[in-house]
Specification:
Elements (H helix, E strand, L loop, with lengths): L4 E4 L19 E4 L5 E6 L4 E5 L20 H20 L23
Antiparallel strand pairs: 1-2, 3-4
Length: 114
């Protein structure tokens, strides 16, 4: 696969800017690859759309929009599915697990979010 994922510790929690309880986390990932096309979608604020090279067979191919760009909604839904699975696993923690009794809630999708 031409892509490598690197987790970035960024956001208010990791930057010690959290003003209240730790009740949410930001997740950012770097996507590296050869031949990626990047198109600026919001000039001046750094938002871009990423297009995979034609004929690319990497696993991200499942998350492409009809226009050929990575679909934020498809990626978010996949990530949400993985979080839901992790929460189910945590809820089944055994008595001797440090996660036993940990309360984790997945917030419903907010209006206007992908």
């Amino acid at each position: 696969d031409i892509f490598q994922f690197q987790k970035l510790n960024s956001g208010s929690y990791f930057e010690n800017l959290k003003v209240d309880t730790t009740n949410e986390f930001d997740f950012m990932f770097c996507i590296y690859g050869h031949g990626l096309e990047v198109e600026e979608t919001e000039p001046g604020i750094g938002m871009v759309a990423v297009k995979l090279p034609t004929g690319n067979k990497c696993s991200l191919r499942n998350y492409i929009s009809p226009a050929g760009f990575l679909s934020p909604k498809k990626l978010l839904n996949r990530f949400r599915d993985l979080v839901e699975r992790a929460i189910c696993t945590l809820k089944k923690a055994k008595e001797d697990s440090p996660f036993k009794g940990l309360e984790v809630k997945l917030q419903d999708q907010k209006d206007g979010c992908p």
